[in-house]
Write a structure and sequence with these properties.
The complex is a heterodimer of chains A (194) and B (91).
Chain A lengths: L1 H13 L1 H30 L4 H42 L7 H37 L7 H23 L4 H24 L1
Chain B lengths: L1 E13 L4 H9 L6 E9 L3 E9 L5 H10 L3 E12 L7
Classes of the chains: A mainly alpha (194), B alpha+beta (91).
Amino acid sequence: MKALRRWQLYQHITGSRSIIRRYFVVNGFDGALTMLGIVMGFYVSGADNLEVISSTCLGAAVALCMSGISSAYISEAAERERELKSLEEAMVTDLHGSAHGRAARLVPFWVALVNGLSPLIICLVIMLPLWLAAAMDGFPMDPLLAAIIAALVVIFLLGVFLGRITAGFWLWAGIRTLLLALLTCGIILLFSTL
Amino acid sequence: MVQVKKLMLDVLKPHTPNSLDFASALAEQGPDYRVTFTVQEVDEKTETVIIIIEGQDIQFERIVETISEQGASLHSIDQVEVVSGNPSHGQ
């Protein structure tokens, strides 16, 4: 309980709750659209080697995760360090041992983790039909089509989440992100016919 | 044995944590601490506050530790009330 309160204090000091929420959505959206694009690409090309498709998708998911972790940590750590130094100048005190110093060192790790894990988890959810189709006989539908539908559902849900946190109409927010995903599919289909 | 009954401290603190959280953190340091927080000045990043702590036996080191932990700095002790803990002292 004490650790939870301490962590809440660190989040409060750094204002990181909104940053984490934003990173979760933005990078989650990146992951979902990237996965949708890759799966769509395989679908329109008529590929059916699930092992190749799964490996490609997994490679992209891991790359998105590592990119998310490293980029967020570097930028957040720099930003927190800058803010801490500015506060130390105003306080004329070394804040290294205070809650502010610890927050500046710890919160970037947490932000980076969310930024990296968000696209990874979302990509793995989208890839689930591919793995299920490879693991079982008689998968009920085309696994690539199932993965595309999974991606559209995830993107819709990300939109709903955004709508809920902005106190907007959740259905319209979900539909808006879904339309973006469908537009992406349309553009990929268009390019495939050229 | 001397017991500290009241302290009035001049403290410079950042805006976060806010006065309520700061005062609560100080009050938690003792079973009967009564903490009064008065903001004197506010600027862009900091605020100067007067903190009055009252209790049966205030542990000054823990108070200073808590102030540092909250990212604040103690500027001065403006008022102190202490009593001797030995009832036979002076007889």
